[in-house]
């Protein structure tokens, strides 16, 4: 490294060392409990085990801080009129840069420790999906003031007109929390809580005692009743967990349209998040209604935009969600406001139903899935134990009627239409999706037809776009119906490949 090579470059915030020290201390404390239990259970004296655990914790914290110190010394960044550049110089030298005109999002994240020390993580992306994360840079961390400055500077577009819309498009309504437990996440969290309790009891050497206590507690109660009680307890734990997760993710939620043509979502209780979407990159919205939310009359709004972080990112946060589960009327109103339309395209058009052949196809798929599951229980029951046969029979009594109802609901949800600048499609039952996609944003069509679809005169047409998930499908439409829809949505794009009867 030559003298003055990094003159004018900025460093990350040195408070990252304190954040790392406390983080590693928390990791060490969490690992200390099972480690102590294992050492004492293996015959080591308590004070000897404690000495080893403390020494290991100090090494873990010290090593983490040392590595972070080396990273802090090696990392530099700067913003020029044309580029954002980072440089890493330690054993190896690495330089990365993003053209400012290609930057599509600047997201800010701050967990509780970051907020305690007044710093934030800045993630800058172009929206490309190049291998190795070449389309994204992360500054971890910088001061909160520097994070806000970078966001404002990197998203500034001289060609965009200034707006005077200061009122938020949406703010948090605490009543929306009632939709949080109406999710498949609730039973999952309940079962996870039970598994976590068993794991902790094993670390503490109390697992056998816990199991014996539960057996004694339910002694004299029929097995089926005991199982139902345990499931009810798990569901209560799941509801509490779902409510807590919702509060953490969506507290202080606010959706703004900022001057310069940027939509900004801010949310989070302990870990705060700020997510920006350029309006000129917006190609539509997706009205998502999971089954539980749909039963309770709720839906969420997701953005369909170019340059968005996708679900294959390591960070699974919903970066494309503009509105959490809220009443459907509210969701449609926010969708209309976001798209600058008087009425949301998802409710402005009466969707065209699909042929009855699609209903039979869905019935066969759902019922066939249940039959395949029951066949597995039957085979294992004959090979292992009759208990599995009883369980399989009970599942069959419940799941077969449910599968028929879900298939019929999935058929009713199939539909497509065109309204103004948008093409609209709907499908799904466990997760119903109604997307409104700008017709100008469609860059191609893919027509899919399986052997079974061909026999019934059905096909699936897929609109290809550079935005959102990249492809939006209209499932099991009639052959002529689906092709005419694609042709009318984007004239001349599919016409050269059609043969007129």
TrEMBL record:
Top-level taxon: Bacteria
Name of the protein in its database record: YdbS-like PH domain-containing protein
Pfam family name, one: bPH_2
Organism listed in the record: Amycolatopsis regifaucium
Domain YdbS-like PH: 72-152, 411-474
Residues spanning the membrane: 17-40, 46-71, 184-201, 221-247, 365-384, 390-411, 457-475
Keywords per UniProt: Membrane, Transmembrane, Transmembrane helix
Keyword Metal-binding listed: no
InterPro entries reported in the protein's UniProt record: UCP026631, YdbS-like_PH
